[in-house]
Amino acid sequence: MPGGIYVALSGLRHHAEQLDQLASDIANASTSGYKTEQSSGVASERPTFS
């Protein structure tokens, strides 16, 4: 069960980061010279549950 929770939490965190990036892009759409940030999308190691 804890492994499934980790997978769900990891996915939620990734999507939240993407939404933050999208919000920043929309807020700065009219700013000249603005460049979007690139998200890494690198998976982190799975924690061990005792």
Describe the structure.
The protein is an all-alpha fold and about 50 residues long. About 50% of the residues lie in helices and about 0% in strands. It has 1 helix and no strands. It has one helix spanning about 1-25. The chain is elongated and about 50 Å long. The mean pLDDT is about 80.
C-alpha Rg (nearest Å): 15 Å
Q: Please tally the helical runs, counting DSSP H or I stretches of 4 or more residues.
A: 1
**Mean of the pLDDT scores?**
81
Main sheet? none
Order of helices and strands: H
Spatial gap, N to C terminus: 12 Å
Report the sheet-strand fraction: under 5%
Total strand count, please?
0
Q: Regarding quaternary structure, how should these chains be classified?
A: single chain
- Uncertain segments are none
Helix content: 40-55%
Shape: elongated
Overall SS class: mainly alpha
Can you tag this structure with a few keywords?
mainly alpha, 1 helix, elongated, single chain
